[in-house]
Write a structure and sequence with these properties.
Jelly Rolls; alpha+beta; Pmannose_isomerase-type1_CS; 3 domains; globular
Length: 396
């Protein structure tokens, strides 16, 4: 079975006024358009166009157990269009989510409360693939020696001196933990302002992009401590078709661009800056992996004719990318899947011979018996369940 699904854009303030409209070839709405969700998450379930007028969560409830259809999807597929920086954030592991959700349930914290940290008991690893020619992100904590070199370009104001002192701890992880704890919980507003001003006016050939990014963030979130936290993070410029994988504990923020995002079906977000929303510093510090590391770039592997697969090795999801152009490509499905067209007029055809032609921004639900799925023309991403986990994060 192939059936078209759709959804309307979420109008978060950081959304772009043009990126989604340009992808879909329509006139911009005039409002920020941040995300389109293709999934059954109750926050914004897709609508199924099979004559039933059901949302996807209700459709899965009605069809669960038939032809390999689960009662719930383990993943959520999105188009994400960042016109302004998103918050710096981190997601819990499965074990942390179960414990945190149970704790807040027992405490009677309403699930829709602004200060609630855990909306559900699931982890939220995620992958984003750039669709715009460049996609800018902050992902993971930079090597501390490099950060110390960056801070050395900021002069010798009071805030910078304290920042340099905090980064002087013996171990890299301890230095980063102590620094972030100070920035988010103890630093005076004047100290934050002094560091931001120093970074905005500094010059460095090695860190020119990071300092320029500071100016961008300061314009969007004046005097926010998250601007200084961002100075500790890897600045990543993805080219179209490149991806990063963000597992539990990795501090990150998407800054600008259009991408296809897939994640475990969860809404658990702990924020650490660049936001007016609630920040729970103690809980954030309990979740973040403070070990510095290179940007978490995820390489695709070949997955058949005209296809590649972004597969981080977790059971929740994998994301195939089929670029057929004037030819055709195919991909094997691992379960109930969603095919999303992002370029050209793409025709998706299942093993039964059923087919749909999808314009950019349109999607189809594909049941498992339609494997392999063939794509003719255009460019399509196919979300599906993933493999058994191969690392600790997926099972923790």
């Amino acid at each position: 079975m192939l059936v078209e699904i759709s959804n309307t854009p979420r109008d978060y303030a950081w959304g772009s006024a043009t990126l989604l409209a340009d992808l879909e070839g329509r006139t911009p709405s005039g409002s920020p358009e941040a995300e389109v969700w293709f999934g059954d998450h109750p926050g914004s379930p897709a609508r199924v166009h099979d004559g039933s007028d059901l949302t996807l969560d209700d459709w899965l409830c009605a069809h669960g157990g038939q032809e390999g259809v689960p009662g719930r999807l383990p993943y959520l597929l999105k188009l994400l269009a960042a016109g302004a920086p998103l918050s710096i954030q981190v997601h819990p592991s499965k074990e942390q989510a179960v414990e945190g959700f149970a704790r807040e349930e027992a405490a009677g914290v309403p699930r829709d409360a602004g200060h609630r940290n855990y909306k559900d008991d699931n982890h939220k690893p995620e992958v984003i693939v750039a669709l715009s020619e460049t996609f800018t992100a902050l992902a993971g904590l930079r090597d501390v020696d490099a950060t110390r070199r960056l801070v050395a370009t900021l002069g010798d104001g009071e805030g910078v001196r304290t920042l340099r002192e905090k980064l002087g701890a013996a171990s890299p992880a301890a230095a980063l933990r102590e620094t972030i704890a100070w920035l988010l919980g103890e630093a005076e507003g004047a100290e934050i302002a002094q560091i931001v001003e120093a970074a905005a006016s500094a010059h460095s050939e090695e860190f020119a992009a990071e300092l320029d990014q500071t100016r961008t963030l300061a314009a969007a979130y004046p005097a926010d401590p998250g601007i200084v936290v961002a100075l500790l993070m890897n600045l990543v410029h993805l080219r179209r078709g490149e991806a990063i994988f963000v597992p539990a504990g990795v501090l990150h923020a998407y800054v600008a661009g259009l991408g296809v995002e897939i994640m475990a079906a969860s809404d658990n977000v702990l924020r650490g800056g660049l936001t007016p929303k609630h920040i729970d510093v103690a809980e954030l510090l309990a979740l973040v992996d403070f070990r510095p590391a290179a940007p978490p770039v995820l390489e695709a592997r070949a997955a058949g004719e005209g296809a590649e697969m972004f597969a981080p090795g977790i059971r929740d999801f994998a994301l195939a990318h089929v670029t057929a152009g004037g030819r055709s490509g195919s991909v094997d499905l691992a379960g109930l899947s969603i095919a999303l067209s992002v370029s050209g007029e793409a025709t998706v055809t299942g093993a039964s011979g059923a087919s749909l032609t999808l314009a950019p921004g349109r999607a189809a639900l594909v049941t498992p018996e339609e494997s392999p799925l063939t794509v003719s023309g255009g460019e399509v991403f196919v979300a599906m369940p993933g493999a058994e986990p191969r690392h600790a994060e997926a099972t923790s």
